[in-house]
Design goal:
With 299 residues, this protein is an all-alpha fold. The protein has one domain. Helix content is 63%, strand content 0%. 47% of the residues are buried.
């Protein structure tokens, strides 16, 4: 028996997320190296096993719960859906965007943004314990990803919003499976999963850097924020240019990703002090600057 493509993609996507969550569980069970055992008490990330079990279970529950929420699939006429059904005027303005190259590029920028906190963890890790540090932080990453992706998947199915390309006539749509209006994913527009993933990675990277390197030079904080902002800003813009999402979709995804990316590191900060106001502003300046550059380069 052959499963419908929409079901295969849905299960595969959920499987990737659940694999990440499973890796977080495994990371909790990995014994630290001799160098890592010398870590001072309260070092980041601080773990409490019952709390981690709750967080990991909640993320997995959101992902699995989203899979059972039905999505109403509407027959799209050959002339496309009526743009007048789009609530916001600035969302209606993007109908007509359909760049397949932007769709491909958004995959790369999202993946780079999601890998960014891992790269930083390894780069600034303690000598002799870098890999252990990445593994330990992987628990935080898995929990944050579970919340971000789980809430995004659930919201997509609850809203059932049509993607921008569904408002194009069949002659205007690219001959590409990503623009096939008969697929269930056509009604997964809000919020943007790419935007949520990219901004989650950026928020994780910036928040962890602020917590673990309080004495870093302002240029380092600005640079970390700039790189993260550029990757996330480019991802969000490329999704709109590809005709896969409306501006409000990527904004909603960004909000979910940022919230999860900031909250989970703060919960695990242990005895670490909260970042100073000046350091936060320096990092934020980098994020804003990087975002603007990412947007400009992706249009």
């Amino acid at each position: 028996m052959t499963l419908p493509l929409s079901v295969v993609c849905r299960v595969r996507g959920a499987g990737v997320v659940l694999a990440g969550i499973a890796a977080s569980v495994a990371a909790l069970l990995v014994p630290p190296s001799a160098a890592a055992q010398q870590r001072p008490a309260g070092a980041y990330p601080d773990f409490d096993v019952p709390r981690e079990v709750v967080f990991i279970g909640a993320g997995a529950g959101l992902v699995l719960g989203a899979l059972v929420v039905p999505v109403e699939i509407v027959d799209v006429p050959s002339g496309g859906l009526d743009p007048e059904g789009i609530t916001w005027k600035f969302d209606r303005r993007v109908v007509g965007s359909r760049s397949t190259s932007a769709a491909t590029a958004s995959d790369w920028t999202r993946n780079a943004a999601m890998a960014f906190p891992v790269v930083l963890a390894f780069t600034f890790g303690e000598p002799g314990a870098r890999l252990d540090g990445v593994v330990r932080r992987g628990v935080v990453y898995g929990e944050s990803l579970g919340f971000s992706v789980g809430t995004t998947m659930l919201a997509k199915r609850l809203t059932g919003r049509a993607r921008p390309y569904a408002f194009l006539a069949v002659s205007e749509r690219p001959d590409d499976p990503a623009y096939d209006v008969t697929r269930e994913r056509t009604f997964y527009s809000a919020p943007s999963g790419h935007s949520a993933g990219a901004w989650n990675g950026t928020a994780l990277a910036v928040t962890e850097h602020l917590l673990t390197r309080p004495d870093a030079h302002w240029a380092e904080r600005f640079g970390v924020g700039f790189v993260g902002g550029a990757l996330a800003g480019a991802t969000a813009t490329l999704r709109v240019e590809a005709g896969q999402h409306f501006p409000t979709d990527v904004l909603a995804g960004a909000g979910l990703g940022i919230a999860s990316g900031i909250a989970l590191p703060l919960v695990h900060r242990g005895a670490l002090a909260l970042p100073s106001r000046s350091s936060v502003l320096e990092a934020l300046a980098g994020v804003v600057s990087g975002t603007l550059v990412g947007i400009a380069l992706s249009r």
